[in-house]
Design a protein that fits this description.
By secondary structure, this protein is mainly β. It has strands at 2-4, 9-14, 20-25, 31-35, 75-81, 86-92, 96-101, 106-111, 124-127, 135-140, 145-150, 156-160, 173-178, 184-188, 195-198.
């Protein structure tokens, strides 16, 4: 959840069982509006049918690695509102970040590491602390990276970290946050179960 102080609204990433962004009044919790991917009406996930004991699980849906991607969110896992009034949504499972106006009008999307082994590349999003918020950071839960994007173009500029247990790498990277000095804090779940701090010392794009 992200509270936008300018409008006194809380923007909620309602993922897992649902597939939508919900906006509520930050004081009263009163519902104001909601939307799905591309600004579509969200279609929530139907409960899985019951399976007999020992029966195999159905195969997961085929992964989409070309074109604009599914018309609905996969898992709405993270959400932030930028200083210039845009809503950035981490669509975990669909390897993308979508951008909207405060009212839910679709603006654009960018894919993050779309063809690597795991699709869980946008579990968390955070902005650099400069007034323009030049950089957008994306927590790649499945592959163990933090991706660095140009916030306005959503172009991936670089990354750090790999899948692993040693300090500086990640297992189950779930969310991240940035402080006023640009230092990055990461949180790992499942096999990772730890927090790490990365001290900002400037940015050099990969050649």
């Amino acid at each position: 959840m992200f509270v936008n102080r300018r409008t006194n609204e809380a923007f909620v990433a309602d993922g897992y069982m649902n597939r939508r962004v919900i906006v509520i009044d930050a004081d009263t919790g009163a519902f104001k509006r909601m939307w799905g991917a591309f600004g579509n009406t969200p279609i929530d996930v139907a409960p899985a049918p019951a399976r007999a004991a020992g029966a195999p699980a159905p195969p997961p849906p085929a992964r989409v690695t070309e074109g604009p991607g599914p018309d609905q969110f996969g898992i709405v896992h993270s959400i932030k509102v930028s200083n210039d009034g845009l809503v950035y949504v981490g669509d975990r499972g669909n390897t993308r970040i979508q951008v909207f106006t405060l009212d839910g009008k679709y603006v654009k999307q960018g894919f993050v590491n779309r063809k690597e082994a795991s699709a869980l590349t946008s579990a968390g999003v955070a902005f650099s602390p400069d007034p323009e918020q030049q950089f957008l950071y994306s927590a790649d839960q499945g592959n163990g990276h933090v991706h660095i994007l140009d916030r306005k173009t959503l172009e991936v500029l670089g990354r750090f970290g790999e899948a692993g247990e040693t300090p500086g790498n990640f297992r189950g990277l779930h969310h991240l946050a940035v402080d006023s000095r640009g230092n990055i804090y990461t949180a790992e779940v499942a096999t990772g179960r730890r927090a790490q701090k990365f001290v900002f010392k400037g940015f050099k794009p990969r050649s």
